């Protein structure tokens, strides 16, 4: 079995993520992973080999800061130029309802590979909605607490002390979600086309209809009536 | 080995600041010139190149008029130092005679210690991107000498020796002061934070000397170090293990139940 389903250009495809969404996504991927591995140098004690990859502890600290600034830039670009998309994203998250709860309840079985019948989902399914809420919140906390830790002298001491544990909690939560997201968005067989949705921007129409029936109907239903079963 | 410590008796201090100069001299610290701030104190606080300062606290007594309180201020060399607890590079260590030693070679300048310290003593030295603080003259003491500050003190306000002996001296002195015009005289450093390896004889309550009356390690620091750091991080390997399990079980079950459709599961 292939790790990721083959990209099929010969079947009807629909757009899932526009360029800006993909730019933000992969921009965060690169900067987050750089920040993560340079940050783990301090979070885990005694990983000198990890620090050595970045040229020692000072080097890791420098890479951490550069990547953090990069991440800030990605957030600003995504937030300013993709403002409309962010609003649509948030609107979809606010549709969290009964179908999403059923999805999340049944998901552990799906996660392990048991065949499960899921209720129709909007653009983002229950699990994706959870990820979309938790991860960006954690990243915002990471950025804010990070700048406080970087320039502690200009903030009140009490805030700096709060920033330390906030940074750690947000890092662990975000990394937990990123691990799950990375796996579910690629090698999990049930995820299917979702990788291509973020890599090339389009997904197979039949996949979209199966996995995100409500979204598909709302976004493409009228135009693609003939393709529905 | 018994703890070796400094006893600083404010009732004998004339605020000559010889200790400050001797400290700069021995530790080869460059001068840090700060603008005049309306009193005789040289520096607002200790800094990256100033390990000890003499604080000048002015207050107006209704009977005696304007009074001065002096206080030599530096690292307190706590028995259970918070700086050592939070340091991610183990740059801090306790010598067997009680000094809290900071190794600049291990320091990465993260400043966690500055904010963990109840006295905010460890200071950032920007030109080196490192933290510095009083060493209790580890190098001198281990060579059989007394710390530079104690050696230079002309009035005997600063003495150096075994902590238990100095504690007795301090207790005698406090008794004497209490019946000789300083009813609030007290010892500082005996019990604070479980004991400090710096002892003070104060002529008044600690708050009159700009010292925290009941110093405490912030709850934020305790929460961070005792709960988040040791336990919370396990969520990450849990996610990795879960993904690995799913990677295997999905493929086993796919063979059993028939593969997912091409576009995903059907």
Q: How many E-type strands of chain A?
A: 2
Share of β-strand residues of chain A: under 5%
- Treating each run of at least 4 consecutive H or I residues as one helix, how many helices of chain B? 8
* CATH topology grouping of chain A: Fumarate Reductase Cytochrome B subunit
Gap between N and C termini of chain A: 27 Å
Would you write up a description of this structure?
The complex is a heterodimer of chains A (229) and B (266). By secondary structure, chain A is an all-alpha fold. Chain A has a single domain (13-227), classed as Transmembrane di-heme cytochromes, Chain C (Fumarate Reductase Cytochrome B subunit), CATH 1.20.950. Chain A has ten helices and two strands. Chain A has helices spanning 19-43, 48-53, 56-81, 83-93, 98-112, 126-150, 157-184, 194-199, 205-211, 213-220, and strands at 13-15, 202-204. The radius of gyration of chain A is 20 Å and the shape is elongated. The two termini of chain A are 27 Å apart. Chain B is α+β, with helices and mostly antiparallel strands. Chain B folds into two domains: 4-216, Alpha-Beta Plaits (2-Layer Sandwich); 220-257. Helix content of chain B is 30%, strand content 18%. Chain B has eight helices and ten strands. A four-stranded mixed beta sheet of chain B has the order 8-1-10-9. Chain B has a two-stranded antiparallel ribbon with strand order 2-3. In chain B, strand 2 and strand 3 form a beta hairpin. The radius of gyration of chain B is 26 Å and the shape is elongated. Chain B starts with a strand and ends in a 9-residue tail after the last helix. Residues 261-266 of chain B have low confidence and may be disordered. Chains A and B meet through helix 3, helix 5, helix 7 and helix 9 of A and helix 3, helix 7 and helix 8 of B.
């Amino acid at each position: 079995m292939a790790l990721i389903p083959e990209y099929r250009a010969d079947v009807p495809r629909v757009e899932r993520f526009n360029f800006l969404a993909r730019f933000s996504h992969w921009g965060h991927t690169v900067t987050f992973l750089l920040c993560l591995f340079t940050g783990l140098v301090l979070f885990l004690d005694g990983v000198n080999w990890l620090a050595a990859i970045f040229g020692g502890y000072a080097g890791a600290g420098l890479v951490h800061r550069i990547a953090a600034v990069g991440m800030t830039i990605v957030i600003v670009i995504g937030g300013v130029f993709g403002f409309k998309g962010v609003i649509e994203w948030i609107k979809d998250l606010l549709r969290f309802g009964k179908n999403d709860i059923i999805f999340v309840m049944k998901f552990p079985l799906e996660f392990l590979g048991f065949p499960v019948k899921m209720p129709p989902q909007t653009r983002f399914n229950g699990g994706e909605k959870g990820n979309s809420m938790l991860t960006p919140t954690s990243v915002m906390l990471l950025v804010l607490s990070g700048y406080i830790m970087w320039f502690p002298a200009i903030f009140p001491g009490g805030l700096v002390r709060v920033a330390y544990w906030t940074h750690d909690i947000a890092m662990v939560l975000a990394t937990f979600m990123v691990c799950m997201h990375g796996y579910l968005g690629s090698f999990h067989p049930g995820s299917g086309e979702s990788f291509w949705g973020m890599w090339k921007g389009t997904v197979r129409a039949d996949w979209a209809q199966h996995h995100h029936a409500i979204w598909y109907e709302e976004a493409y239903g009228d135009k693609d009536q003939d393709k529905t079963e | 080995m018994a703890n070796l410590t400094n006893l600083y008796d404010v009732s004998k201090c004339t605020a000559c600041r010889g200790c400050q100069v001797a400290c700069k001299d021995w530790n080869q610290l460059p001068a840090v010139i700060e603008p005049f701030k309306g009193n005789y104190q040289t520096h607002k606080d200790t800094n990256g190149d100033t390990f000890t300062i003499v604080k000048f606290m002015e207050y107006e007594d209704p009977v005696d008029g304007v009074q001065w309180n002096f206080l030599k201020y530096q690292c307190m060399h706590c028995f259970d130092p918070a700086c050592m607890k939070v340091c991610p590079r183990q740059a801090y260590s306790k010598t067997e005679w009680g000094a809290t030693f900071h190794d600049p070679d291990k320091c990465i300048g993260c400043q966690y210690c500055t904010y963990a310290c109840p006295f905010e003593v460890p200071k950032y030295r920007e030109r080196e991107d490192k933290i510095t603080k009083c060493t209790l003259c580890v190098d001198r003491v281990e060579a059989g000498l007394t710390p530079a500050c104690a050696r230079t003190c002309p009035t005997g306000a600063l003495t150096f020796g075994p902590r238990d002996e100095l504690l007795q001296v301090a207790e005698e002195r406090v008794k004497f002061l209490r019946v000789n015009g300083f009813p609030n005289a007290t010892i500082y450093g005996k019990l604070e934070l479980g004991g400090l390896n710096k002892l003070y004889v104060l002529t008044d309550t600690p708050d009159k000397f700009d010292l925290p009356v009941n110093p405490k390690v912030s709850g934020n620091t305790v929460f961070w170090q005792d709960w988040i750091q040791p336990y919370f991080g396990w969520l990450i390997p849990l996610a990795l293990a879960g993904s690995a399990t799913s990677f295997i079980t999905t493929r086993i079950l796919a063979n059993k139940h028939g593969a997912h459709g091409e576009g995903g599961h059907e």
